[in-house]
Amino acid sequence: MLSLPLILMLMFFGAFAGFMAGLLGIGGGVILVPLFLWFFPLADLPPEIIVHTAFGTSLAIIIPTSISSTYGHRKHGNVAWKQVLFLAGGGIIGALIGSSLAALLSGPALKVCFGAMQVTIGLKLLFFHPHLPPEYEKKPSWQPLAAVGLVGGCFSSFFGVGGGVVAVPLMLILLRMPIHLAVGNSSALIVVSSLAGALSYVWFGMQAQVQTPWSLGYVNLTVAAIIAPMTIVFARLGVRIANKVSQDRLLSAFAVLLILIGAKMVLRL
To answer: 216 - beta bridge partners?
Structure first.
């Protein structure tokens, strides 16, 4: 049974994660996963399932959050549906691969990989942003779009972060999209990849015979029900702010967030 202070804390972090999801198109998992790794021990979850439950629950919450973000970005014309179709095709396959790999690794190994991945991408964006290639006027073909979706989907389910932490940089650097289109497309991709990833964590949790109260496999339904409404509401606010912020500031905020969260995970502070 969760106490009122813990419920209020979950709601606060859900609001913050939703805001960052809408602002940066990252799904909110970079906030939710570290929160759950701290919170689930307080809720007396068995240590051996904490990391996988954090990832699975994060993905379940990201589904409605990314739907809200996508709707907001679509209203501003920042979602190219034909591109999203190919991104999503690769994202489904990648999500199945990522969740399968995560199920084979221990919790501590996943935590270190999670942090190292975020720090690496954050440093790349922060220091190489002035040298990003010029935007292409020509629309990318389906092959590179599907490849970006595959990588994003794999990272989404492997780390429980939605996939935007990889998809956005790839769309900027390889596909040379404008930042706001990359963020909008990423939000739409996250809807598909997080759904496939969450279902995979449910299945793998059932195969592992995880039996915790109010959970379905590696997805904690109680926590998801508390946080999801907050992330949905504040994701829309993040979208509004994103369309009023310059590209330089948006990229800098994205990079700094990844570095801070990733360093904390690696160092286990």
So the answer is: 219
d(CA 50, CA 55): 9
Length of the chain (residues): 269
Q: Which helix (H) or strand (E) covers residue 216, if one does?
A: strand 215-216
Query: In a 10 Å sphere around its CB, with 0-12 CB exposed, 13-18 middle and 19+ buried, how is residue 224 labelled?
Result: buried
pTM for the structure as a whole: 0.79
111 token code pair = 């935590």
The tens digit of pLDDT for each residue in 57-79 reads: 998 988 887 887 788 778 878 88
Q: How many domains does the chain have?
A: 1
d(CA 186, CA 209): 33
Place of tokens 């996943």: 110
Residue 219 φ then ψ, to 5°: -115, 120
Is the distance from CB of 262 to CB of 117 less than 8 angstroms? Answer: yes
Q: Which tokens is 32 given?
A: 């939710």
Which residue range(s) make up the domain with 162?
4-267
